[in-house]
Automatic annotation (TrEMBL):
Residues 40-179 form the CHRD domain. This is CHRD domain-containing protein. Transmembrane segments: none annotated. The keyword Signal applies. Keywords: Signal. The keyword Repeat does not apply. Residues 1-19 form the signal peptide.
Length: 179
């Protein structure tokens, strides 16, 4: 596999956010890191690889407090161009699916926004979400986040991935499997 700046397309450092008071005194009890599998080949449409935007890179930093059902996020996208697009309430998500598969969104984060009008500028989204969660996607009349808790990510992070979608890259501009 060719190594490029996009090879770390969705580099995620999942760690407990110690600067936020909702986390138990800064105990780092659920820290995961991923790296080598964060590349454009991870974007999937069904089971078909559908590479995302060339040259784009994303960083996702998540902190989880499963006792309070809270996830804090710091999402940074670089080289992502165009408008977001998704049938969900936002276009930036955590989906439930193993590597090489598609799955339903379980969390919908506010889309990262640029700090200037330059389309190549870095986009940011930072904050916290507390369950119960909603995605705006209904399956059989039920939101895909119904019954989901962040403890599920904590129990099996490899069963989830993060991504963002744009009008040009509807299956995903970037994808990174949690590990």
């Amino acid at each position: 596999m060719k190594t490029t700046a996009f090879a770390a397309s969705c580099l995620a450092l999942i760690s407990v956010v110690t600067a936020n008071p909702i986390f138990d005194g800064g105990k780092k009890t659920n820290a995961w890191k991923g790296g080598k599998d964060w590349n454009p080949d991870q974007v999937i449409n069904g089971t078909v690889p559908t590479p995302g935007e060339p040259g784009a890179i994303g960083y996702y930093d998540f902190g989880i407090n499963s006792k309070l059902d809270v996830i804090c996020y710091d999402i940074v996208l670089k080289g992502v161009t165009g408008d977001y697009q998704s049938p969900a309430k936002t276009a930036t998500h955590i989906h439930q699916a193993v590597k090489g598969a598609s799955g339903p969104p379980r969390l919908a984060f506010p889309n990262p926004l640029p700090v200037s009008d330059d389309p190549k500028v870095t986009r940011y989204s930072k904050g916290c979400l507390k369950g119960p969660f909603t995605t705006g996607i209904l399956r059989n009349g039920t939101d895909t986040a119904a019954g989901f808790t962040v403890a599920q990510i904590e129990a099996n992070p490899a069963a989830f991935f993060c991504d963002s979608h744009t009008k040009k890259y509807v299956p995903g501009v970037l994808r990174g499997q949690l590990a």
